[in-house]
Amino acid sequence: MKSSATVPTANAGRYMVQLCKHFGHKVPAEWNDHEGKITFEMGEAALRAAPETLMLVAQAGDLESLSRLEKVMDSHLKRFAFREPDMAVEWRRGA
């Protein structure tokens, strides 16, 4: 199962690296200047930073794991983006 979200932000690259480094202390994570990947037990999150957007793609084996992965990515992104209180992460299933 798969879902994606495109988050408008001028800080996409910074947030992508923060997420990858943060989770990289506990689970496998890799990144470069524009893309990252975090491999959780429940599934995988792919990230892509563009100048004005951060693209998130979550992939898991079942709906429960996908929902959990979406919530983990959403909550951590919003924690790092506390200076952007209006940030919205809207997941689209099957995208």
Topology:
Blueprint: E1 2-8, H1 12-24, E2 29-31, E3 35-39, E4 43-49, E5 53-60, H2 63-80, E6 92-93
Explain the overall architecture.
There is one protein chain. This protein has about 100 residues and is of the alpha+beta class. The chain has 2 helices and 6 strands, in the order βαββββαβ. It has a 6-stranded antiparallel beta sheet, with helices on one face. A hairpin with a 3-residue loop joins strand 2 and strand 3 (about 35-40).
Order of helices and strands: EHEEEEHE
Please state the overall shape, judged from the principal axes of the Cα atoms: globular
Q: What is the quaternary state of this protein?
A: single chain
What is the CA–CA distance across the termini? Answer: 9 Å
Q: What percent of the residues sit in helical stretches (DSSP H or I)?
A: 25-40%
- Give a count of the beta strands, DSSP E runs of length 2 or more: 6
Indicate the low-confidence ranges by residue numbers: none
Helical segment count: 2
The description of the largest β-sheet is: 6 strands, antiparallel
* Approximate strand percentage: 25-35%
Largest sheet: spatial strand order: 2-3-4-5-1-6
The overall average pLDDT, rounded, is: 96
Q: Write down the Rg.
A: 12 Å
Class by alpha and beta content: alpha+beta
In short:
With 95 residues, this protein is of the alpha+beta class. The protein has helices at 12-24, 63-80, and strands at residues 2-8, 29-31, 35-39, 43-49, 53-60, 92-93.
Keywords:
95 residues; alpha+beta; six-stranded antiparallel β-sheet; 6 strands
